[in-house]
Amino acid sequence: MALTAMTLHGVIVAIVTPFAPNYEIDVPGLRRLTDHLLSQGVHGIMTTGGNGEFPHLLREEKKRVTQVVVEEVRGRIPVIAGTAACGTREAVLLGRDAREVGADGLIVTPPYYFHLPDDALFTHYRTIAEEVGLPLVVYNNPLYTGNDLSPALIDRLAAVPGIVGLKQSNADFGTLVENVRRSGDTIAVLTGIDSQFYAALAAGARGIFSTAACVIPSAMVQVYTLVQNGKFAEARSLHLRLQELNRFLEYDPGYVGPCKAALRLLGLPAGPVRPPLPEVTPEEEASIAAALHTLGLLAA
Q: Considering 62, 63, 167, 260, which one is annotated as catalytic?
């Protein structure tokens, strides 16, 4: 499926990487989870992102995860592979791996560890776009990378051929609004924060790269559909209801453990998180179960 600034929209699921008890990739579980998400009407799937535990996957594992999802999707919705790396050369190699197994596009955070000037960040993204040749989504996540992509830099990147979108994961909602104002006519601007979903759509964002949609895909799609149909009051009401769960899927104490715990409670493939990520505590799991019960997804 051709990924462009026009076709990048809606609810893009940040899929987990299911693991077996020995921490090996659970390929049958990944296939089952992918099929489940497809049945719920999501608009795209993002593999090997933060929710997919990409920092703890080997290069060949990242390629395999994307390959499995591509095989299950069979062109029905876009598959966007997370190919972030500290170095430009590695990011290009990961991007070529994703292209080889049929990904429709790439999503890439800035390099992490070193603090880099804007010109270096610009060159990093331009090089990936030129050398991989797949549509590229820029992923701004300053809390985790230490390199914030300003609206001015995003505007420069929006002019690079092959860059089609932005995932904006910044607690400062004003930066998302400014990105929509400056670059929203050139690239697709999406939020990456579930608690900002309704507000982002109201401000002109094209959708969301969502952790919550791995757990409550149909409900997240419903929020998007209500907004597209002009039913803003209903969308806002549903969004606030979903916050009962979404509040567990933010940055502190981490979203992967809670997401996998929720999936396990629902009987969906997830498995453990890979060390050194922490599992949720029994108290946290009980709170997640209570939220799922409140949403009518889990029996008391």
A: 167
- Catalytic residue, chosen from 62, 63, 125, 139, is 139
Contact 227, 202 (CB under 8 A): yes
Largest distance between two CA atoms of the chain: 54
Could you give the CA distance from residue 58 to residue 240 in angstroms, rounded to a whole number?
Answer: 38
Q: b vs e for 172-190, b when ≥16 Cβ sit within 10 Å of the residue's Cβ?
A: ebebbbbbbeebbebbbbb
Read off the tokens for 199.
Answer: 């507000």
The partner residues of 47 in beta bridges, in order of sequence, read 81
CA distance linking residue 200 with residue 195, whole number of Å:
9
Is 139 marked active-site?
yes
Catalytic site includes residue 167? yes
Report field, pTM of the whole predicted structure over 0.70: yes
Q: How far, rounded to the nearest angstrom, does the alpha carbon of residue 176 sit from its chain's CA centroid? A: 16
Look up residue 39 and give its two tokens: 């049945």
112 CB-side CA count, 13 A: 14
- For residues 300 and 293, what is the distance between their CA atoms, to the nearest angstrom? 6
Alpha helices in the chain (DSSP H): 27-39, 59-73, 88-100, 118-132, 142-145, 151-158, 173-183, 197-202, 217-228, 232-246, 256-265, 282-294
How far out from the chain centre does Cα 16 lie?
Answer: 10
Structural tokens at position 151 = 């609206």
Domain residue ranges in the chain = 10-229
Domain 10-229 grouped into CATH 3.20.20.70: yes
**Residue 254 confidence class, pLDDT cut points 50, 70, 90:** confident
Cβ contact 259:211 at 8 Å: yes
DSSP state of 133: -
* pLDDT at residue 299, rounded to an integer: 83
Mean pLDDT on 233-246? 97
